[in-house]
Amino acid sequence: MPEDLWRTSETTGRFEGSPVDVRDGFIHFSTATQVKETAARHFAGQSGLLLVTVSADALGDALRWEPSRGGDLFPHLYGDLPLTAVRSVVPLPLGPDGLHVFSF
Q1: Which among 3, 68, 58, 80 is positioned nearest to 38, based on CA atoms?
Q2: Chain centroid to CA 40: how far?
């Protein structure tokens, strides 16, 4: 997630979605096993990103698992993300090769 977009949500206590999320009608998420490919596909070469980790259990029925890339099930949140569901927010830097460096 772009840091400026996240910082705006911190002032309201909830994340309402990126422009792409608003267009699609849900907030896009990736699992820990999906996030590296998501970053490479949709955020390639972008600096100033944050990796936001969320508790799926805290989202209840608003979180739905739906088929997407290659038939994999991706989590989609139908509604705003309450910041109380967020477990961590860490920088997602670019490495010297231009790829994002994950700490897990």
Answers
A1: 68
A2: 13
Q: What DSSP state is assigned to residue 52?
A: E
Give 7-43 as a DSSP string: HHHHHHTEE---HHHHHHTSEE---TTTHHHHHHHHS
pLDDT in tens, 21-69: 999 999 999 999 999 999 999 999 999 999 999 999 999 999 999 998 7
Tokens representing 9?
């949500």
Angstrom CA distances, 98 to 44, 52, 72, 95, 101, stand at 8, 20, 26, 5, 9
Burial class (CB in 10 A: 0-12, 13-18, 19+), 4: exposed
Q: Which CATH superfamily is domain 3-92 in?
A: Protein of unknown function DUF952 (3.20.170.20)
